[in-house]
Amino acid sequence: QIVDGTVARHGRVDILVNNAGVGLDRRFEATSLEEFERVVSINQTGVFLGMRAVVPQMAAAGGGSVINVSSPQGFEGRAGFGAYTASKFAIRGLTRTAAIEFGPLGVRVNCVVPGPIRTAMTDRAGWVDDDYARAYGGYPLGRRGEPAEVARVSLFLASDDSSYCTGGDFVADGGVLAGKPVDR
Hints:
single chain, alpha/beta, 5 helices, 4 strands, 43% helix
């Protein structure tokens, strides 16, 4: 319905950013099947459904760009984040498979990998600036990123400037995946 409405209003769909996501900070033994499935449904299945909904329209219009959002947890495990990590690894796999299948249709599919970004999802109850400075200070850029910093990577992938990019991971994580600080 959303895709049909967008096509009716604008004539076509050129870009999809699959950015819906939830986290769950709970160890395996305390995670219920329902909680696990909820995270996977929103984070992983949502990406699948989004692509399935727009790609036929994009292909019919001559092409487009799909941008799926993963996480550093799509590259490495993290205690307490089993459901989230599983879903973010899966997004990277879906991105690659979709790039292979949709490339001949003129649809590019890439993955943005933001690190800790200053959003409601990374805000911690009761934390002040000093708490965030301690939590992220040991990473190369020493801070949480801003939403605009990830938006600029997405804008690149949505634009013709990235016309030869598909199936890739575009990391904007402040150096999180470069490695863990010595004091961790």
